[in-house]
Specification:
By secondary structure, this protein is mainly α. The protein is built from 13 helices and 3 strands, in the order H-H-H-E-E-E-H-H-H-H-H-H-H-H-H-H. A 3-stranded antiparallel beta sheet has the order 1-2-3. A hairpin with a 2-residue loop joins strand 2 (113-119) and strand 3. Helix 3 (80-100) packs across helix 5 (131-143), helix 10 packs across helix 11 and helix 11 (274-307) runs parallel beside helix 13.
Length: 394
């Protein structure tokens, strides 16, 4: 592979891609550019006070973007089957790392949750990095469900369960819920019988309810979400400040860089509540434009899924679309008070290298599916003889 081909903007093969792949590529770059612009505004003042350099977070994010774009371009130029062939190994690696975060002394805590592993100056968040590989392996399982033995099915369902339980134990209810819903929707799209899906949905709901019952801070978040103004300086503080930011944007917004809530009123403004800063600076119109961008991404993802040649590729496209657009909508819903406060970043907006890597890998996978769906099929000269369907291993 030539060094030039690792840089997305100098990829000479783009002109031969399918229309959906090219549109999605530019839509991804627009999403990324807008995200970096908002991160610059949201983080500058905080970085200047805390780090003595207003560009501290922005420069670090740019480095992560460069590394992520190299990975992005490798994926869009690599056969999807080769990526699928290693997805289970990477999923297993990140599953082990998720449980490593629970070991005292190895897991790095923040806000009473152990979600990171520090490798020198580089923080690793396995629950973010596992997302694209969870989509790949879910698509691989449910796309070949009828050809697999029950032993293989139950093994992978157990592994998926361990992933969710491990993330839930950190504790990280929002990410665990997102991963669980994504797997469930991929299974639904894969045609899994409704009785299995219904039982899994009930089990997932009860597990989430149990987590809220056990974890006092999660219970307080839910109660404060119902009426944040009742404790505006306590449990409801984050949501109240976020709603003030969103409301202050009015129709056209205060203007780029003019957010007042980011001046140490709105907590975690460069990650969990970055949409609130965006809404304050660009207003209702800007928010509608962002939602339109998400709608276009979702539409392209659906078109790519419908054009996919086989069930596994189709489920990969649907899974990536669900997890990227779904996570974005959940982030917006939290910032606007439609859902309880959670710690979900806004893909390609929020500060954090792990989220950036996962987002651009996801976009790369979706573009790769689009590219392979556009390739001309080579019809066999002979009609293949009938082969009995025998269960096989994944």
């Amino acid at each position: 592979m030539k060094l030039r081909s690792l840089i997305p903007f100098f990829d000479d093969s783009v002109s031969t891609w399918a229309l959906e792949a090219r549109l999605l590529r530019w839509l991804t770059f627009i999403w990324l550019f807008v995200g970096l612009t908002i991160l610059f505004s949201a983080s500058y003042v905080v970085a200047d006070v805390r780090q003595g350099d207003g560009l501290y977070y922005f420069k670090r994010q740019v480095l992560w973007v460069i590394a992520s774009l190299i990975g992005f371009n490798i994926i869009v130029n690599r056969p999807l089957q080769k990526i699928l062939n290693v997805s289970h190994w990477l999923l297993g690696l990140f599953l082990i790392l998720i449980f490593v975060t629970l070991i005292p002394g190895l897991g790095k805590k923040a806000f009473d949750a152990a979600r990171w592993i520090a490798l020198g100056p580089i923080p690793i968040q396995p629950s973010e990095l596992i997302k694209p590989f969870l989509v790949l392996q879910s698509a691989r399982l449910f796309g070949q469900w009828e050809r697999l033995t029950w032993r293989v099915r139950l093994t992978w369902l157990g592994i998926f369960g361990l992933v969710i339980l491990g993330i839930l134990a950190q504790p990280n209810l929002s990410t665990a819920s997102l991963c669980g819903m994504t797997i469930w929707l991929i299974a639904l799209a894969g045609g899994i019988p409704y009785q299995y899906l219904a039982g899994t949905a009930i089990g997932g709901f009860l597990l989430g309810l149990l987590s809220i019952s056990i974890k006092e801070y999660q219970r307080r978040r839910v109660l404060s979400f119902l009426n944040p103004w009742a404790d505006a300086t306590g449990d409801g503080y984050q949501l109240v400040q976020s709603l003030l930011a969103v409301g202050s944007g009015r129709t056209w917004g205060a203007g780029f860089g003019m957010s007042q809530q980011k001046l140490f009123y709105l907590p975690i403004q460069d990650t969990d509540f970055i949409f609130a800063v965006f809404a304050e600076e660009f207003g209702f119109i800007g928010s509608i434009v962002l939602l339109t961008l998400l709608a276009l991404f979702a539409t392209l993802g659906l078109v790519i899924a419908l054009k996919a040649k086989n069930s596994v590729h189709r489920l990969v496209a649907m899974g990536v679309t669900i997890i990227m657009v779904g996570q974005s909508l959940l982030h917006v819903a939290v910032a606007t008070g439609a859902l309880p406060t959670t710690g979900l970043p806004l893909p390609m907006f929020s500060y954090g290298g792990n989220s950036m890597i996962a987002s651009l890998i996801g976009a790369g996978l979706l573009i790769r599916v689009a590219r392979e769906s556009s390739e001309a099929e080579v019809l066999p000269l002979r009609r293949p003889q009938f082969q009995s369907k025998r269960p096989r291993r994944l």
